[in-house]
Write a structure and sequence with these properties.
- The structure holds 2 protein chains of 2 kinds.
- Chain A has one domain (2-253).
- Helix content of chain A is 70%, strand content 0%.
- Chain A has 12 helices and no strands.
- Chain A has helices at 2-45, 53-74, 81-86, 89-95, 100-105, 114-130, 137-163, 172-185, 195-203, 212-218, 228-232, 234-253.
- Chain A is globular and about 55 Å long.
- By secondary structure, chain B is mainly α.
- Chain B has a two-stranded antiparallel sheet.
- Classes of the chains: A mainly alpha, B mainly alpha.
- Chain A binds chain B through residues 19, 21-27, 29-30, 32-33, 36-37, 40-41, 43-45, 48-49, 112, 170, 172-174, 176-177, 180-181, 184-185, 188, 192-194, 197, and chain B through 34, 36-37, 40-41, 43-44, 47-48, 51, 54-55, 58-59, 190, 192, 194-199, 201-203, 205-206, 211-212, 216-218, 221.
Chain lengths: 261, 284
Amino acid sequence: MYRVLLAASMRAQGQYRANLIIELIGAIAYQGAGFAFVWVVVDRFGDIGGWGLAELALLYGLRLGAHGVFTFGFAQLMGRITEVVREGEFDRYLTRPVNPLIQLLTRRFSLTVLGDLVGGIALIVVGVTHVDVAWTAPALAYLVLALLGAALVEAALHLAASALAFRQTTTYALSGAIDQLLSTLGGYPLKIFPVSVQLGLTFVFPLAFIAYFPAAVLLGRTDELLLPWLAILAPLVGVLLFAASYGFWRSQIRHYTSTGH
Amino acid sequence: MRGTVLRTGRVSWQSRFRASVVIAVLAGRSLWVYRSGLLISAGVLLVQIFALQMVWTWVYAGDSVVDGSGGVGEISLPVQLAYVTLSTAQFWALNHWGVYSLQQRVREGRIGTDLARPLDLLWQVTMGRGGTIAGCLPFALAALLIAMAFGGVVAPASAGALVAYLVALVLATVISVQLVLLLDMTSFWSLEVTGIYLSFTLVSRFLSGSLVPLWFMPDWLRVVAGLFPFQATTFSPVAIYLGVLQGSAMWQALGIAAAWAVVLGVALRLSWGRVLNRVVVQGG
């Protein structure tokens, strides 16, 4: 009997593990479509904006890795607030002595979020080992800081969108749009876009700080940037944006009216 | 309609037709309930179109034409821009999320009620999907009009090309729905299919030509794409519209698409029979 149960348990675990691997591959595949595009275009045309494949791999890897770090810590910010508010779960958060944001972030965890992180790091490794850059300790430290800062930028965007849920606006579509925009636009060196678009993607929708600025700094391409000094400060901008977003979140909680569960 | 069932014990084809239309309309209307989300999604579609136009304008780097592979000849920049506009909008409309999802209903255990209805479940899901696509069409058209205002669309290559395009579009819709249904069926075997879904999404997106037209793919990849039905859902119709696929190449593309529609339809029917024997209803 014990053997039967043990075998069943191992089969269940095996299925879980197989599932997990499929999930990871799936997540990588989903985000990988963007890089597949870049790869095909470079294969046919040589480069994009003067950036070769290895440099584009680093750029895309930074975007994907940052998304991985973001989903690792902040996945619940992507639209989940709507159901949390609707089902009265948020009321329970408010009765506890722990910061409600922390409660929201930790309510659930799925290992599948590792897919983007693994994919991103893989691309970064490919980029790092193939570009013509001296990887000193400061450079590597900047790379790590850039990843963390970029995750904070993405978290800031989703946190601001989630804060709108307190005013009875559905944030699910908004979070989806943010995710799509970052995926669509995040893999290109922004210099190929018109100046107005570049400025928009810096000061209106801060995509540039997520991957393009740090990558340009690491690859020594700061001369192609409009504002090189701003680019170097990308990780710091991430922290500032998140702080601002958190302030907005707290201000919106005051408008929160319970659904009455 | 109720009377028909009670009296004869069988559902007449008129009732089935009416029921099908009702399901399609309901699916489209349910989509409209989420119109703010739909509007945002359409907004993102526009951004994607403009971004791709900017990327390709840069890639062409002042060249007015670039050689396409696969015997299609030269592709001018306006044609390439029109391609990305039409293909992105088309892919969006044919693959948009809908309120009725077979996989969702299996997971929530509601599939039992669906099976109890007198209309064949496969047909219910097909009409649901069709209704969703129809609901997305106005938004896709609006996006196309806006893109056109910025010069992203060209007129069809000829009247014949336009007619062939419409035929190809119908086939593309049929094949899209069939592929989604086949994928959804995997949810009857395993309730956790997100990984398969996402991998399928990448492969189908890419090989359909919705990211890169087949004429800019490396030769080996173009050959691989030719083996699958995906290119019939995005690449073929748009290429026909633009006159890039014309003459015998156009007829070939249409023939292949029609063949795939038949093959996938048969595959659906066969696997559906097996699935019904294996229904796992969760919860209840």
